[in-house]
Write a structure and sequence with these properties.
The complex is a heterodimer of chains A (295) and B (671). Chain A is α+β, with helices and mostly antiparallel strands and 295 residues long. Chain A is built from six helices and twelve strands. In chain A, the strands form three sheets. In chain A, strands 1-6-3-4-5-2 form a six-stranded antiparallel β-sheet, with no helix packed on it. A three-stranded antiparallel β-sheet of chain A has the order 7-12-9, with no helix packed on it. Chain A has a three-stranded antiparallel β-sheet with strand order 8-11-10, with no helix packed on it. The chains are: A alpha+beta (295), B mainly beta (671).
Chain lengths: 295, 671
């Protein structure tokens, strides 16, 4: 299923934490509730001995999407007093054996937000087009909150002559978003452009956001570029990302150029998507009688 | 405290030192180096032959000058033994070879001793001989025979004293002669006369004389009351000299009792500052005239007394150039010992001091060695005789310049009772005949054995090459060159089965040419040369023997760049920083300094036993991709073992090296 959770996972898997640059991970020894202020780390499951050195006061742990601050740590029992729901995250229950990211470079919340931003920013360069039939006088309700502009409107249920109109956020007769026609329309077909929704949850699907799955990669590239900017990207990560980009003929030099290269890649993908979009959403050419005067 | 890794290789560790695991960070700037090196520091040995510095690989032992004498059983000396100046010119053992200091312009060489030939077998058996600057004498029966040279056997002068058989003759350098008869009378002739007169007539003047000496121009006699074993007297017998030429006057002798003793007076010698006498009670007594000290009486006065080690009887003395040699025999008669001493000056009351044991002889089968009292001092040597094997009397030479002791000549005689050196010819009496050394002809065979050599190394040595240089290789003369890798037993037996031939040199073309050998490995080695003459007057002369060894074991050196940064880099993991981790790691590293531990390197897989030799201060370097890493280079010195890497170190297939910023190693031999 295509939703924000999958997209976030893909961002980690593809760019942020590739297989040879995984984050330091510990395991939760016993489930905790959203209200708990202590947790137990499995002290037999350290992947690398130095990982335990990260269990010190002030270090942020990430379980699922919640960021948790370490207050105390007992190396003999693994018991850890914590401050929950840090950095704008929300305290939730966590299951036994949940992975604990130790002082992660990229938090899941940040990645989600970067993806949400980049999906929103695809418009106006990219948009989708949808057609609905409305019915009314000069105004009819527009149910789609992402609709931003009318591409074409024709009178009649079976396609009559074109009529002009626009989409407004509020019409007094409708009491909300509405399609306003130049003339009485009765039943009319409206083809309109849609922008992309702002994701609020990892449960949000592409459908919810109005995101064409083909363009998810553009948002992904943009989000990772945003995250890389200003970061000291690890060498292994540079190699990995460089390899991914090289497949698209995008050359990465030093690590400082990684973010720039990804933004270039994003533009390439964007241009390609625009072409595809224009081909798909051809604008109807309509000739109106024009009064021509020759003077 | 960082925990113990459960899967070191998978977790990115590179090396275990003792119980501690560390990550390593080799780079092109700070690579991982593994090489071998001599287990000893570079040495400068300038006391020995310069040839030892010529060879540029391995360590050499090379000798031309061996005038320091025998008795050096091990070179270099073992731990705790103080090296001596002459160690580099000494060897272990020899027989029938001359190792003399060369004349100016000649090289040092080792050659066969001259052979001795029968001079004469007189009708009356010769019993003693003496020499002055101009003549030599022997006594036989009742006569004294004088010779001016060894050219023919007809005496140049014969004096029949007609006072019973003669038993001892003494001569001074200026031709004074004193003779002792079996009845205890003493006859004497002055320096410039051939007339002997009795100067001591025992029935009228005292007890019978048992021995006489001519020292400092004085006649010294040891007398004993034959009826009372305890009443011994040391007399100075001063004949009244008169007439022209000056001759002693019969019966006008002045006799002075110098000292008394209860046991036998064995020897008396002019020892420079004083006259030294040896007694069977173990005492060495010094006598000085008062005119030599306080300007009083010219009579000899006993000044000092030294005791040789308890139970030993000093039976022979010789002195020259400040060196007093003392031969003693112990009360069991099992051991003869040679001591070197000095007569100290007036400040120390002329005592015989600074006595050092030079050598101990035991007879065949640990029975009493036969020995002779004959000790002869020449210009630069002191000679004496010792029967070390049945029916073979060996003449030993003590070199007064180098303090070297050499078994120079072996004579197949049952006993040498007396000997002289006259005009560079050695003459000796075996009881029935007089023999003289040839000035040209050489003995058939002689040998020399080196010390046990280990080149100062504690490890197995590959003895790679040998050098023998000799000249005089004509008329079938040859030199055989042997080695033994069982030197502890081989040096005690010149015919031991472990002596293996290296080379037989019979032509000068191969002299000094290095003979390379393979498969000769041991920690210690001894060399032996056997010289064999060609014609009678031809001896090969060995001018150099050398051996070159290459340590078979060399220390392994590992220079390991230990990652002491705060960054943690592990396979498959994004590096992360643990503040303070580098300091902790460096502290752990320093705690290992100087420890004797095992070092386990995962890549290349290698286990070394040894010592953490050196830990450098951390240095930061910037890698090719811009990462900054702090590295402290650890130098480990030890031995490589055949141990395999632990299972924990191999538990995962992901190698710790070659990932991330780790990946440069070099393996080789430091040249």
């Amino acid at each position: 299923m295509s939703d924000m959770r999958n997209l976030v996972d893909r961002a980690f898997r593809t760019y942020l934490e590739p297989p040879n640059a995984r984050a330091a991970i510990a395991k939760l020894d016993g489930a905790i509730l959203a209200t708990d202020t202590a947790l137990i780390v499995d002290i037999t499951a350290w992947q690398v001995p130095e990982d335990e050195e990260l269990m010190r006061q002030g270090v942020l742990l990430e379980i699922d999407s919640e960021l948790i601050e370490v207050l105390t740590y007992d190396e003999f029992t693994g018991t850890c007093d914590v401050d929950r729901a840090k950095e704008g995250t929300v305290a939730v229950d966590h299951a036994d054996r949940s992975s604990i990211k130790l002082s992660p470079n990229y938090t899941r919340l940040s990645v989600f937000e970067a993806l949400a931003d980049n999906i929103s920013q695809l418009y106006p360069s990219l948009y989708t087009v949808r057609a609905v039939m409305v019915q009314g006088g000069r105004a009819a309700a527009m149910e789609d909150p992402l609709a931003v502009d009318i591409v074409e409107m024709t009178a009649g249920a079976n396609g009559g002559p074109p009529i002009g109109g626009k989409i407004v956020d509020f019409h007094p007769d409708i009491g909300g978003r509405a399609v306003v026609a130049d003339q009485m329309m009765g039943s009319a077909w409206v083809r309109y452009r849609r922008r992309f929704g702002s994701a609020t949850s990892e449960d949000d699907t592409y459908e919810d956001l109005g995101l064409d799955p083909r363009w998810a990669n553009i948002a992904l590239i943009g989000a990772c570029a945003d995250l890389f900017v200003g970061q000291d990207i690890e060498a292994s990560q540079v190699e990995w990302v460089g390899g991914v980009l090289a497949a698209e003929n995008i050359t990465v030099g030093t690590r400082a150029q990684v973010a720039g290269a990804m933004l270039r890649y994003r533009e390439v993908l964007m241009d390609r998507a625009k072409s595809e979009m224009r081909a798909e959403y051809k604008t109807t050419m309509r000739f109106r009688p024009t009064q021509v005067s020759f003077r | 405290m960082v925990g113990v890794p459960t899967r070191p290789r998978a977790q990115g560790y590179g090396v275990q030192i003792g119980e501690e695991w560390f990550r390593i960070a080799p780079s092109s700037d700070v690579p991982l180096n593994i090489y071998t090196q001599d287990s000893l520091a570079p040495r400068q040995e300038n006391r020995a032959s310069v040839e030892e510095n010529v060879l540029d690989l391995g360590i050499a032992w090379s000798r031309s000058n061996l005038t320091g004498g025998e008795g050096m059983d091990r070179f270099p000396r073992g731990p705790g033994e103080q090296p001596q100046e002459t160690d580099a010119i000494r060897f272990w053992d020899s027989s029938n070879v001359e190792i003399n200091r060369p004349k100016e312009g000649d090289p040092y060489s080792i050659k066969l001793s001259t052979v001795s030939t029968l001079f004469t077998t007189p009708a009356s058996a010769p019993v003693d001989m003496a020499a002055s600057i101009d003549h030599w004498w022997y006594i036989g029966g009742t006569s004294v025979f004088r010779f001016d040279d060894f050219a023919n056997t007809v005496a140049d002068d014969t004096d029949n004293l007609a006072d019973g058989n003669l038993v001892q003759i003494e001569a001074s350098a200026d031709n004074q002669v004193a003779v002792l008869t079996t009845s205890g009378d003493i006859w004497y002739k002055g320096a410039n006369t051939n007339t002997y007169l009795k100067v001591y007539d025992q029935p009228t003047q005292g007890f019978p004389a048992q021995a006489i000496w001519l020292v400092k121009g004085r006649i010294i006699a040891a007398t004993r009351d034959t009826a009372s074993a305890g009443d011994g007297r040391m007399l100075e017998i001063a004949p009244v000299i008169g007439g022209t030429p000056a001759t002693p006057t019969q019966g006008a002798t002045v006799i002075t009792i110098v000292d008394t003793f209860t046991q036998t007076m064995n020897a008396c010698v002019d020892a420079g500052h004083a006259i030294v006498a040896a007694f069977a009670d173990g005492s060495l007594r010094s006598y000085v005239t008062q005119t030599d000290t306080q300007g009083g009486s010219p009579d000899l006065t006993v000044h000092a007394r030294t005791q040789v080690p308890r139970g030993e009887n000093p039976y022979a003395l010789a002195w020259n150039m400040g060196t007093l040699l003392i031969l003693t025999i112990d009360s069991d008669g099992d051991h003869v010992r040679l001591y070197k001493a000095e007569v100290l000056d007036e400040r120390f009351d002329f005592v015989v001091g600074d006595m050092q044991l030079l050598r101990t002889w035991t007879g065949p089968g640990e029975t009493a060695p036969n020995y002779t009292k004959a000790m002869v001092a020449t210009r630069d040597s002191i000679l004496f005789w010792m029967e070390e094997t049945d029916n073979v009397m060996n003449m030993w030479r003590y070199d007064l310049v180098t303090a070297g002791l050499v078994r120079e000549r072996g004579e197949a005689r049952t006993g040498v009772v007396s000997s002289v050196v006259f005009e560079d010819v050695i003459g000796f009496i075996d009881g029935t005949s007089i023999y003289v050394s040839s000035t040209t002809d050489r003995v058939a065979e002689g040998y020399l054995i080196s010390p046990i050599l280990n080149l100062g190394l504690n490890t197995t040595i590959n003895w790679a090459a040998f050098v023998l240089a000799a000249k005089g290789l004509a008329s079938n003369a040859k030199v055989e060159f042997y080695y033994s890798i069982e030197p502890e037993v081989a040096i005690l037996n010149p015919t031991h089965a472990s002596w293996i031939s290296i080379q037989t040199l019979s032509a000068p073309g191969h002299s000094g040419v290095e003979q390379t050998k393979v498969g000769i490995s041991s920690n210690t080695l001894a060399l032996k040369i056997v010289l064999k003459r060609g014609s009678f007057n031809n001896s090969p002369e060995v001018t150099r023997i050398a051996v070159r060894g290459i340590p078979a074991h060399r220390d392994w050196i590992a220079e390991v760049p230990i990652n002491v940064s705060d960054m943690v880099e592990a396979p498959g993991r994004a590096p992360y920083r643990v503040p303070g981790l580098g300091h902790t790691t460096h502290s752990r590293l320093f705690a290992l300094s100087g420890l004797s531990v095992t070092l386990t390197l995962l890549q290349p897989p290698m286990v070394l036993h040894g010592v953490v030799h050196r830990i450098a201060e951390p240095t930061a370097y910037t890698g090719d991709r811009g990462s900054v890493t702090r590295v402290a280079v650890l130098q480990f010195r030890g031995s490589r073992t055949g141990a395999t890497i632990s299972d924990e170190g191999q538990s995962l297939g992901v190698l710790g090296l070659g990932i991330g910023q780790v990946g440069t190693a070099s393996v080789g031999v430091l040249t």
